[in-house]
Amino acid sequence: MTRIESTFARLQAEGRKAFVSYIMAGDPDVDTSLAVMKGLPGAGVDVIELGLPFTDPMADGETIQLAGQRALEGGMTLDRTLQMVRDFRKDDNDTPIVLMGYYNPIYSRGVDTFLAQANEAGIDGLIIVDLPPEEDEELCIPAQAAGLNFIRLATPTTDDKRLPKVLQNTSGFVYYVSITGITGAAAAQAADVAPEVARIKAKTDLPVIVGFGIRTPDTSRAIASVADGCVVGSAIVSEIAAGKPVEDILSFVASLAEGAHSA
Amino acid sequence: MDDLINSFMTGPDEKGRFGIFGGRFVSETLMPLILSLEEEYEKAKTDDSFWAEMDFLWKHYVGRPSPLYFAERLTERLGGAKVYMKRDELNHTGAHKINNVLGQIILARRMGKTRIIAETGAGQHGVATATVCAKFGLKCVVYMGAHDVERQAPNVFRMKLLGAEVIPVTSGRGTLKDAMNDALRDWVTNVRDTFYCIGTVAGPHPYPAMVRDFQSIIGKETREQMQEAEGRLPDTLVAAIGGGSNAMGLFFPFLDDKDVAIIGVEAGGKGVNAKMEHCASLTGGRPGVLHGNRTYLLQDDDGQILEGFSISAGLDYPGIGPEHSWLHDVGRAQYVSITDKEALAAFQLCCETEGIIPALEPSHALAHVAKIAPDLPKDHIICMNMCGRGDKDIFTVAKHLGVDMSATEGRNAG
After folding, report:
1. What is the pLDDT confidence band of residue A260, given thresholds at 50, 70 and 90?
2. Which of B25, B189, B303 is opposite residue A109, by nearest beta carbon?
3. Which top CATH class is A3-262?
4. What are the boundaries of each domain within chain A?
């Protein structure tokens, strides 16, 4: 059982919703992002999504793109991202870490080398935006063979005919994208999301977590109440971009987590 | 060359691959759309009414077939091989781009899409898309890098005249790659009513194959015209490559003619060196995944994509169509690079000897022709693709030649 699976099993037993947060590794620098990351579990974060910077984040909005640019300009690399995870793991061996990004930096490293390094560093799962089920043999299947979860995105355009294919090799949880669009864009509506989550849950036992378009504690609660939890990324990254102190960022995260947990 | 391959014309496979290249590396939101596009294209491919509509518009709207022209004075000047030019710069809108745009827009209409988006570098694909959208009364949005908006001002004005909305892209360095990112973001957001009209033989399957098929009219005509002019096929084909659509269009119908040498010319910028001031993906890059396909890319050791560099906005892209990557790896085509300086010299040579002002993109192809023709026998036939006219580039060329045109710009704007 991965840390992701045991965390969701525990939350389910407790009847609690999950709160998942996203930050970009190395944004604006390694020390700050590591300090934020170390504070996330204390702020109520159940699963950490750690962004791997990429020059061309085609599915992300400006907020995440600029975060990636700041990280890359600060010299962030795949090796330094893995080192950040190792440093986090020195004090925390329980909180699941999902690496989220695009395929090319991983392909460039070599899939087998990358998977060995990710496992050793303490990464539990992967969300790779530009690897749909049609490309499963690239990374999804090798990752699961190596003991990592491969978390797939389901979207409003994933119809019933296609849904089984999307769920087939997914593990850990299903990430439902609340809108057709990029990160940090339109606001998610619980009324639109609820029937979609139900549609997916009818086809899988995996937890369904909803992301994209969640920026406030109220939306966090509203969306978590119709799913197994929710993800917030751009809203947190905006706080980091504004140069706020780590404690202020973490108290904002705590308010979002509180929203989800009160659902 | 790999003798085990019986035909070079059977790709891509059902997964959209040419060898290891190509594929469908896109987000889930786009996947259902790409599958339905593939289905629609497969239907259209064998539908006579689709090709009848294409043929009619190619003839009466675009002006096809484009001439195959023997460049006599250029041939004399170079003193070797006979040089022919496939005159796709004479097409309506001034480049080969419209061949493909017509096909995609007819497909979009069949799919019931009402809004067309496109990315553009030099602006030729944007102009072609805006043109066909105007003809069919479709809404058109063109993404163009802010840097390109600046260096291709005449084309920006043309697109606006044609009713398109031009959105300058400021992310990254503001060139073609960044425009493509923003077009993909638009598509993910407006997936239900929008058709993404890609301008080159790149992107997720089925785009590389579909764009190649539409552009193959260039090579099909060249075969017939060369038979008529010389009673045989050419010995060597030469075409410039950014993404590689004009080249794929010329090359594809000749891939199984093993005696025809095929040469693609990449943009060497300031020179293919360690400083990466070029756009030569095959000469200076390695395989990676970007914009929906696996192909040769300019990238650093960590898999981060590098910005290309070229005097020609149309070649300024860090990748190349996946079929070119495959043809390179199996050895069917040869790929070389030409610097900005060499392309500028060829641009002037073509103006002086033939009375044809070429675009900077085919000037790269011409520069390579000028390099190899003198050493080839007089009965050797080279056919280069004159894929675009140079009106859009005169300001850039003037700047590089040290001519100040700012005073005349206002007078010529009409």
Report:
1. very high
2. B303
3. alpha beta
4. 3-262
